[in-house]
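Researcher: Good morning. I'm working through a list of sequences from a screen, and I'd like to move beyond sequence-only analysis. For each chain I'm collecting a predicted structure so we can compare shapes side by side. This is the next one on the list. No need for commentary yet; just the structure.
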Amino acid sequence: MTVLVAGCDRQSGDAAQPQAAPGGDAGAGLLDASHKGSELPDFTFKDASGKELRLASLKGKPLLINLWATWCGPCVAELPTLQKLAQDRKGQLQVQIVSQDMGEGGAVADFLKARTITALPAWLDPDNQLASHYKAETLPTTIYYGADGRERWRWIGGRDWGSADTAVLLNQ
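Model: Good morning. Structure tokens for this chain:
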């Protein structure tokens, strides 16, 4: 059996990863439920202005955490669908994107603003704490937690977060 995972496996500069066409397919991915039941980690992240987000404080509502980077084509392609998901399920689902870029935080915020991704705060993880914690070798990697703060599943690779099968996954 062959499994295709569309994602980025390294950071090699702006031209390293092909950029997907706007509105195009965000790619294929892999569902991983092998960590089901794991507790939400207690990490704190900042945005470019210094505002903090403590992950452990997000218990109480389902949570989708997306690890992404500006240099990752599949990551960038799925950002609009993550934003739409956050807007469509506001009050029911928390969607947090955490940049794995190692550069200046302001550049990440500017990158999102230039692409009209304004409903998702630009949280920064320049030390790649989450990627290390999750052993994420491919970006994007997205982790779904129930309201109890327990992991339900991970999606490795790009995804159209507005698809009907995504709704089924999120309703589990």
